[in-house]
Amino acid sequence: MKNSGLRSAWLLLLLGLAQPGTAQPSASPPDSVVGAPVVRPWLTRPAVLRVAVPVVLVAAGYASRNENFLDEMKEEVREETRENFPHFRTSLDDYTRRVPLAAAYGLFAVGLKGERGVVPFSACFGLSHALSTGLVSNLKRISHTQRPDVAADFSSFPSAHTADAFLTATLLHEQFGRGRPWLSVAGYTVATATGAMRMLNDRHWLTDVVAGASIGFLSAETVWRLYPAVARLLPGHLGQKLLLLPTYAPGGTVGAVLVVR
């Protein structure tokens, strides 16, 4: 079936985001050549693809606003979803987007060792959440995309719930999942389920969900990799003492609180 093939292809793209790069860097050869050029890890082909693929998916989602094959595809996926799950309703997706973050702090609480301490991890979460929220809110304003279930609501693209879910799943992967792949699989499974529920609830198009997943992933990866360099620029050990926490207020207002310990 043509429609089924389109749906399967785009769902595979979403699931592809849920596969973290767990390949370990290869060990240096024993007889290294002095003066040989050093290949920066962020310039390797896998690293470039990890950035390029999500960016392309966000661009494709934005392009689906116009009448083209992407717009037709998301309409077809929505029709099939409503046909197969006409009575699906849940508020579980409001909570699952935070599950990977809660799991990370739970692992801290039981004393599990990860890549960084709780303070740097919290700072990375606060900064990446601020970056993701800024990108999502501005894209919602610029794209002015109609939600599938409410004709008067033009804040569909991209999905903020899915962005949050993939952001927290990526941080869980980076903090604890490198040596424990099952944690990464669990985190990204919950994130993927969150995106699926946003579609089953008829709150988002498939392109909204894919773009949200891409933004959350990129925001977390960007901050996680830049944070050590930024922390080294701070005087003394201030980088280890800073704690940036997101704040929420009624009406959807998002802010941040900077704490020095």
Automatic annotation (TrEMBL):
Domain Phosphatidic acid phosphatase type 2/haloperoxidase: 125-224
Cross-referenced CDD domains: PAP2_like_5
Protein's recorded name: PAP2 superfamily protein
Lineage start: Bacteria, Pseudomonadati, Bacteroidota, Cytophagia, Cytophagales
InterPro entries per the UniProt record, alphabetical: PAP2/HPO, PAP2/HPO_sf
Signal peptide: 1-23
Keywords: Signal
Keyword Ligase: no
